[in-house]
Structures are given as structure tokens and as C-alpha cells.
Design goal:
Layout lengths: L1 H26 L24 E7 L10 E6 L3 E5 L2 E5 L7 E6 L11 E9 L6 E7 L5 E7 L2 E8 L2 E6 L15 E7 L3 E6 L2 E7 L13 E7 L8 E11 L8 E6 L2 E6 L3 E10 L3 E5 L9 E6 L8 E9 L3 E6 L3 E6 L1
Antiparallel strand pairs: 1-15, 2-5, 3-4, 4-15, 5-14, 6-11, 6-15, 7-8, 7-14, 8-9, 9-10, 11-12, 12-13, 16-23, 17-22, 18-21, 18-23, 19-20, 19-22
Length: about 350
């Protein structure tokens, strides 16, 4: 019995020390001889598990991957693929802009940390110019921003940005450089952590209300002039991805559809495991969307008893926008998904 209590006491001390060590590592500043070289996820997990890339890609050649990225330009701004990187360049036209955004949305599962990582090089910046990148879209998310020569981190909620300039960082305050660098953002339901070359710059805490809307995030990269700016400035990106740490698979949900019906099964990303056809009808169409959008069809199953048939159709594939299933001609279908 004495040995048990000694073991329990030691275990408690070790556990407490481990949590303290996690905080110290997370808050560590640059030290002589190097930088932070061990990472702890915001969920207090050692990052020894293999990260899974859920959104993004490298840029291996001069061709732009239209299955992964969509570009938007105006007033002469251009997005150009070169060997090993992508370049976003403004023009001498007033208020030119260019934006690159991921086609897919990174699914967020509570309890599994997500992090954004990008390798980039900013050739130059000036007044009336804004460069930003991170896991965000027009309404929600967060990222890094250099605007009017001021370097900041930000979160975005309902389209409104909350910026923290570098002079207010609670971590390391960097100096501007035109060398290539690596930026990271880790985020949870309450905190956003910003890193530059493995050194923590700032932690934003949101104890009273969320930083932004819940749900998945896209990668967005922007370079734009504003206020009549006419400078042609280049911003090069070598890679940009969102990764997941921890288990992202959850217990399945089962939805039963009987007859001709259209059902929105989920309003955000997930994984479609299988479609089970219990009795024949005509067609079963699956959409990666919150409604029956023809451009986002995952698959069409022929459930006619003559040309198709009953049985189990395995998919085991992710969806990113939502899940909608439409059956025609009657029939009986079971949808298994996360």
C-alpha cells in the first residue's frame, strides 16, 4: 500500500511538471544557439503524431493547380506560377489587387488542433499596400498582415478585423525582412497562436466570446494596393497548407431516407462513409454542399432495380462544404457519414 501511494504521489508530481513544461515550451523565446525545437499543440499534445494536410499544396512548377486554388484579380494585378513558387504582383494601375484562395475548406473538429503553415517571401512593401495571408475568408478567420508598413496579426469575425500591431505583441517582436520565412498559426475555440520561424510572436485569447465564426477555414493570400496606390509590388509564396493534429474522425451519424426526398445532412465539412440502398428507386445523388448544387456533385448512384440495384456503396471520402442527398423515383436509402 505504501508503494502505491508513493507511486501515486510521484505520478502527480510528474503530471504537474509536465503541464508546467508545456507552458514553458509554448511561451519560450529565442535562446542562445537556436529557437524552440519541440512543439506542443494548443490541446497540450506533444506533436509527435504525423500531421495530416487537409488543405493546400506546394507549387512545384509554373502551372497553377486549379483543382486546389482559385485566383481573383483586378486592375492589372496578376497571379503567376514560376518554378517552385507562386507570385502575386500588383500593377501600376491604381488600387490593383490579386488574391489566391484554396478551393477546399479545412474541417475543424473540436479537440483536434489545426495549424496553418506557409513559406513566403515579401520582396518589398510600401504605403498604400496591403499583404495578408492565413486561414480566413471574407467573413471569418485570422492571419498575418502588413498594411501601410505596419506588421500585425488579426482575427476576423462577421467581416470585421481585430488587429494587433507588432508593437503590442506579447511574444517576440520581429524586424522587417525581405528574406524567405515560415509563418504558422495554431488555433482553438479560445486562442490563436502566431509564430514566425518557430518563434511565438503573439497569443490572442478570447475568454468571453469566440474570435470568429465556428467551422472550417480556407487559405487566403492577398496582395493589394488601396487609397489610390500605384506601386507594382511582388509577394512570393512557396507553399501554404492547413494541417490537423489529433484524431479528426468522429462517430458516424446515420440518416434514413425513404421515398423521393432532398435532405441536407450537414452544413459543414465531414466524411461520407457509405450509402446503403435498402430498396430500389431511380437515382441517388450526393452533393458536397448545403443544397443540390450541380457543380459540387460527389456521385450519382443508379438505384433502379433493373439497371442498378440495392447494396452498399463505399465512399470513405471527405466533403468540405456540407452534405446533401437527393433521391428520385422512391426507394429507401441509408446515409452513413461524419
Amino acid at each position: 500500500m505504501k508503494a502505491f501511494w508513493i507511486w501515486l504521489l510521484m505520478g502527480t508530481l510528474v503530471l504537474g511538471a509536465s503541464f508546467e513544461a508545456m507552458e514553458l515550451i509554448d511561451k519560450q523565446q529565442p535562446i542562445t544557439g537556436g529557437y524552440r525545437n519541440v512543439k506542443i499543440s494548443p490541446m497540450r499534445e506533444l506533436t509527435v503524431a504525423d500531421p495530416v494536410r487537409v488543405v493546400g499544396s506546394v507549387f512545384p512548377n509554373s502551372l497553377k493547380e486549379t483543382n486546389f486554388w482559385v485566383e481573383t484579380v483586378s486592375n492589372g494585378g496578376v497571379v503567376t506560377g514560376v518554378v517552385g513558387e507562386i507570385e502575386l504582383r500588383t500593377a501600376t494601375n491604381a488600387n490593383s489587387s490579386c488574391m489566391l484562395q484554396s478551393v477546399r475548406t479545412a474541417r475543424y473538429v473540436a479537440g483536434a488542433a489545426l495549424f496553418f503553415r506557409a513559406n513566403l517571401k515579401i520582396t518589398s512593401v510600401t504605403v498604400s499596400n496591403q499583404i495578408s495571408l492565413g486561414p480566413y475568408d471574407a467573413t471569418s478567420g485570422g492571419g498575418f498582415m502588413v498594411s501601410n508598413l505596419i506588421f500585425s496579426v488579426f482575427t476576423r469575425k462577421t467581416g470585421v478585423d481585430t488587429l494587433v500591431p507588432s508593437t503590442s505583441f506579447n511574444g517576440y517582436v520581429p524586424t522587417m525582412s525581405t528574406n524567405a520565412c515560415v509563418v504558422e498559426i495554431w488555433w482553438t475555440d479560445q486562442k490563436w497562436y502566431y509564430y514566425l520561424n518557430d518563434v511565438r510572436l503573439h497569443t490572442s485569447d478570447f475568454p468571453n466570446e469566440p474570435a470568429c465564426e465556428a467551422g472550417g477555414k480556407k487559405i487566403t493570400i492577398e496582395n493589394k494596393s488601396y487609397g489610390g496606390g500605384t506601386n507594382a509590388l511582388s509577394f512570393c509564396l512557396r507553399s501554404a497548407s492547413i494541417y490537423s493534429f489529433g484524431q479528426t474522425r468522429t462517430e458516424c451519424i446515420v440518416v434514413h431516407l425513404s421515398g423521393a426526398v432532398s435532405r441536407t445532412c450537414k452544413l459543414s465539412g465531414g466524411r461520407l462513409h457509405r450509402i446503403i440502398v435498402n430498396s430500389p428507386g431511380t437515382l441517388c445523388t450526393i452533393y458536397d454542399d448545403t443544397s443540390a448544387v450541380a457543380a459540387n456533385i460527389i456521385g450519382i448512384i443508379d438505384i433502379n432495380k433493373t439497371t442498378g440495384g440495392v447494396g452498399t456503396y463505399e465512399y470513405d471520402c471527405p466533403f468540405f462544404n456540407g452534405l446533401t442527398v437527393v433521391t428520385t423515383g422512391g426507394g429507401d436509402v441509408t446515409v452513413v457519414y461524419e
